[in-house]
Design a protein that fits this description.
With 683 residues, the protein is α+β, with helices and mostly antiparallel strands. 26% of the residues lie in helices and 24% in strands.
């Protein structure tokens, strides 16, 4: 969509009783962010009360019509998502404004790809609007949902504010008072300073409901001053909504223990010492996870929002019995979410300790769900699902009117979301943080069976032997199986590292958009047969390049590396000296190679040899230096069992070592955002 255009939601989908609105942006530095907010307006363009203003300290409507879901992982990193139940929106509400604001001195012009998307209840994307030329504004109205007859329409707005969240809120009638008591309370909570502005009652200038606005660069409008009543008396101040962030995160430093000696073990909410069989592990893991989901809405929304589940009151159940032919079936769990009198339900089937899903079992649950009106079947195992490669094949009866979706989660994804919330982003209160910490401790315990992807599969040893013997031929299905498991391993490595760092870590797929993932994996399998290497690339927010991982099955070596570009200014010798200084704490066996703009290879050497003589990195023929390549080598494990040893652990350790000992010391990239006019001229 373009600025000012509008569209009826019913023209885009038949399932728009509820919608998911996603706001996204890209920060070149990896540090920029913004906060979303929603305002419900009456026919006069004003909130009915301050309760119609939803933001990070007031994220959920009591009637379920609005819920700020927080950040949700996507293929491009993460987005802020908002769930709207349009059937539950009060009739007095005429418009819903969706906006975002930055805090402090930050501006939207520092972000790239500022956009809003809207999806229907089934998760199908319906529209997208990109906000261009954000400039120096600190708040932006991305779009609005408004009534038209019996239905709803969406308008792409793209209006900027110089006065941030406070100016935006006051422009629509929210009272924001600056009093000492509130400031003292905010300071006591350890929250950030509240934004300040005068409250107003003037409606913002706009265009008629059906008239598109002429597309123009985004301009900032100040918040007008407070209006007077009809009798000339000031309007009575309403209760001030808190706009200071208040989230609980666990401290990074471990508290001093009161234990008498090191052999004492802290009491845990979810004990693992009595787990003796796979059945015990599955029952305990299911009950632990579902109980925490029911109590911590921030966490449950992270896991279920992508499955089409609404925001609402959640109840979870384990070991239920459902009729199926002559004998009842017992799925491991059931999730039920109530929203505005409607139910969303899903069956849950879990596996632990590396056990695989059984196709006939999942098929039976899909059939039961279709007959009983369940929306989804969710499988949860140590395996990581791949695009275009389902873990189990099930048959869908297309003649049935009720459609059931099959979704998959890995235990590594569950642990990742828990770690992101309690270590980096925070949750609503200390009790929620403690519950998530107990869940994470349980999942990471060696006896829980929830350790994630652990086995390279039965084809791993024959493929390695075939590569060493030079008997592995292109087209061998075993090579494809190894490539698929390698991709699963890399995705899990990204989850673990991202959870530890609190940053987006994503695998890079260098294929054309829309390319068939199966064709890509077949090509990689043929390459494995030819050169005996498995290769992957990881993009880590805030790093100057892509981290490469290569496993050479011929010589049993793992190589991790990163290419960093040469500076745009300065002298080559200064570049070399600065790089060596930055790597003062890096391993001595780090390989450093100079990349040059010529066919000849550049100089290279270990960091130990280059530290006293950085000039050895300069090419003798004065070739132009384009960058530097930093690489670490380690032996590759060869474990064959189901335990997380050998190859899988060695890859995890290699990536962790590369980041913590090398990448973390490199300069953060300072990519300059190219103005749209310059981009247009370049094109």
């Amino acid at each position: 969509m373009i600025m000012g255009s509008n569209v009826a939601l019913a023209d885009l989908s038949d399932d728009v009783g509820s919608v998911i609105v996603s706001l996204g942006w890209v920060s070149p530095t990896g540090e920029g962010d913004a906060d979303v907010s929603v305002l419900l307006l009456d026919a006069n363009g004003k909130v009915r009360s301050d309760g119609d203003f939803y933001f990070y300290n007031h994220p959920v409507a009591a009637d379920g019509s609005v819920q700020l879901l927080g950040k949700t992982p996507t293929a491009d990193g993460s987005e802020d998502r908002i769930s709207f139940d349009l059937t539950a929106v009060p009739s007095a509400v005429d418009r819903i404004v969706v906006a975002a604001s930055r805090y402090g001195e930050a501006r939207f012009g520092e972000l790239e790809d500022v956009r809003i998307t809207l999806a229907d209840a089934a998760g199908e994307s319906l529209l997208r609007f990109a906000v261009d030329d954000a400039g120096s504004v600190t708040a932006v109205i991305f779009g609005e949902l408004y009534r038209r007859g019996e239905g709803w329409k969406f308008r792409a707005v793209g209006q900027g504010y110089e006065t941030g969240l406070a100016g935006l809120a006051t422009d629509f009638g929210v009272d924001i008072e600056d009093d000492a008591a509130t400031e003292a309370e905010a300071a006591f909570d350890g929250a950030e300073a509240d934004e300040q502005a005068d409250a107003v009652a003037l409606a913002p200038a706009g265009t008629p409901a059906e008239e598109p606005v002429q597309q123009a660069p985004l301009e900032a409008i100040p918040a007008p001053r407070r209006s007077e009543g009809e009798a000339g008396e000031p309007r009575k101040p309403a209760a001030r909504p808190r706009t200071a962030k208040k989230k609980v995160t666990l401290p990074k430093t471990v508290k001093k223990t009161l234990a008498e000696n090191d052999s004492w073990r802290q009491a845990r909410l979810f004990p693992v010492s009595v787990l003796k069989s796979d059945r015990d592990r599955e029952m305990r893991a299911t009950s632990v996870l579902l109980s925490v989901m029911a109590q911590v809405p921030e966490f449950s929304r992270r896991l279920t929002a992508g499955f089409g589940a609404p925001a609402g009151r959640m109840e979870t159940f384990t070991e239920v019995s459902l009729p199926h032919g002559d004998s009842p079936r017992r799925p491991d769990g059931v999730i039920r979410v109530e929203r505005a009198g409607k139910l969303w339900t899903a069956l849950v089937e879990t596996k632990t300790n590396g056990n695989a899903l059984k196709a006939e079992q999942v098929q039976a649950y899909m059939d039961i769900a279709a007959r009983r009106g369940y929306e989804a079947v969710i499988t949860l195992t140590n395996d990581v699902a791949l695009e275009g490669s389902p873990l189990v094949d099930v048959k869908i009866d297309k003649r049935r009117k009720h459609k059931v979706a099959l979704w998959h989660l890995s235990w590594a994804e569950v642990a990742h979301q828990a770690q992101m919330l309690i270590r980096h982003e925070g949750v609503g209160n200390a009790a929620h943080a403690w519950l998530l910490q107990e869940l994470l401790h349980y999942l990471q315990h060696e006896n829980s069976g929830c350790h994630g992807f652990q086995n390279m599969g039965p084809a791993w040893v024959p493929v390695r032997n075939g590569i060493n013997d030079e008997t592995l031929c292109q087209g061998d299905s075993r090579a494809l199986e190894v490539v698929e498991n390698w991709e699963r391993l890399i995705r899990q490595v990204c989850l673990r590292l991202g959870g530890e760092l609190g940053q987006k870590v994503l695998p890079v797929q260098r294929t054309k958009r829309g390319a068939d993932p199966k064709e890509r994996r077949n090509h990689l399998a043929d390459q494995l047969c030819l050169d005996g290497r498995l290769q992957a690339e990881l993009r880590i927010d805030g790093t100057p390049g892509v981290l490469t991982v290569s496993a050479d099955l011929r010589n049993g070596k793992l190589r991790t590396g990163i290419d960093i570009p040469a500076p745009e200014q300065g002298y080559p010798l200064s570049w070399a000296k600065r790089l060596i200084r930055r790597l003062a704490e890096a391993p001595a066996d780090l390989h450093v190679e100079t990349l040059v703009d010529s066919e000849a290879a550049g100089p290279r050497g270990t960091l130990e040899r280059l530290r006293p003589e950085p000039a050895d990195l300069l090419p003798k023929d004065n070739a132009k230096i384009t960058g530097f390549r930093l690489s670490l080598l380690k032996s590759m494990g060869s474990g064959r069992g189901n335990a997380e040893t050998g190859f899988i652990r060695s890859v995890d350790d290699a990536v962790h070592r590369a980041y913590t000992t090398v990448v973390v010391h490199l300069d953060t990239p300072t990519t300059r955002r190219t103005p749209s006019k310059e981009r247009a001229a370049a094109e």
